[in-house]
Amino acid sequence: MDRLAGAVTSHRPRGTSHPKVVIVSLAKEGRVMATSGVEEVAWRLLGAFYDLSGHSPLRPVPIGTPDSPPNESAAKTAGVEPGSTECDVALRYLLNGGYVKETDTPSEYEITVRGIEKVRGMRGLADPASSEGGNKMSDQTQRRLLTGLSIGIAMVLTRPVNRYIAEQIPERRGIRDDLTEAALQGLVRAAAFFVASLVVRQIAGSR
Known about the structure:
Helix 3 packs across helix 5 (about 85-95). This protein has helices spanning about 1-5, 20-30, 35-50, 75, 85-95, 115-120, 130, 140-170, 175-205; strands at about 60, 100, 110. The protein is mainly alpha-helical. It has nine helices and three strands, in the order αααβααββαααα. The chain has a three-stranded antiparallel beta sheet. The chain is elongated. A hairpin with a 5-residue loop joins strand 2 (about 100) and strand 3. The chain folds into two domains: about 1-130, Arc Repressor Mutant, subunit A (Orthogonal Bundle); about 140-205.
């Protein structure tokens, strides 16, 4: 029971059963899971988060309900019944280990960079050099780098756009001219974010 309590803490995953209910239910049914059993289910669940998120740490994935189709439920994709004690314990294992994290939407979770690396390692997709050392880029670091690069790239791209606007759009402007400028500025920001995201992915993938 003590080992199980370590896997299911007092801070339960949102949208799942209360941890005390999980422990009592498991004890009554005689289904106290060994650590190896918990991990086996947890790794399957982590692989489902990895696949359904498209390998992205920014895309939330629902744990699902008994009525959810498999492509909208990480639990069902992993072959686990949503809301079951088995699912609750495995999900808490992943949360405690930092492999997935909660989002603002109850019952939806995002796989972390650590979770992605774990799945890639289990599937033989990881770079051997990156799986041995501690050079891992966290989600927060990736977001900060993405923001900084986006701003820097946007500043560089804005210069020729501003020159174009100054030359092509007259001082006495109408609504159409304002819309043209807004569209150009929006295009610059979108292009900057796209380029920055590619750079961050390349950097994170090489670590």
